[in-house]
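dumping this here before i forget
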Amino acid sequence: MTNTRGSNLICLRSRDLQNTDVLGNSGRLVLQQPIIANSNEKLYVCVMSATFPNSWYNLSSYLNNNTISFKETSDSSFKVITLEEGSYNIDELMLEIKTKLQSNSTNSLTYTLTYNEIKNSVNITHSNTSSITTNIDFTNINSCRRTLGFLSSIKTIDNSTTSITSDRAVDITDTYNSIYIRLPNLSNQKVITSTNGRYSNIVAHIPVPLSRNTIFTYEPQKPFCMELNQNNITAIEVAITFQDEEKRVHFGKGDWEINLLIEYRLNMEKEAPPHTIHKNLLRQMKNYEKKQIQDNKHIQDIKQLIKNKK
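structure:
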């Protein structure tokens, strides 16, 4: 599409935005001068580049994934153990779980968790499978099961099943492996998400490298440019979320930056000609009156012809 004039580059820093929430993932910039498209133009917005800190935890109460529930022989009910929040790799997570299981073991068991990198799976067993049964409940809504590679079910370790092994891929990110840049106050009808099948305010999807406590950048070779419904921008609101719009990224107040390009492009849509019900009715009435006049004239001509033949 044809650009009608020069674009606007807007450089956003999270620390400069208004109303940034305590998680450090959203804010608002009020423009000193509005960006206004002419009647023959449409506005487009593109994310040219962005820089983010990989500072959020992959295991936390905020993500609802920091517990493990288990029950041993002699326990009357399941114990729900809360794991320490943090950014773990798989070995660190297994050590945290091992420590918590053993410190809460009714039968003073030693638990062993082993990661198989070739199969991307975790195996769990304990030191007295011949006499002690352990049930691990992975159905708990706050379970860390996906990080260990387990489906939602209750697994049993006993004398017949001396260990349990992941029945899905280990995902240390717990599916939080991408972030999304959203512009909540700029509407469009071009982006649809699988979450609800409706139009969304997403302008960029950014894969997250598995490199905790570092800075990562987003510089697309061909940025997606979103056509906006409005032709006037007075402020820009930004929110950084996971695919679920309600699940904001917890940056821990770490700073991030985004560069947005606002383009003016030629509006190729042709306006429909003026047409109203009132005008349509008037046209039909005129046609009807014209036909009535023609019919009356025809009737008079026939009467005159009959009269002349008498």
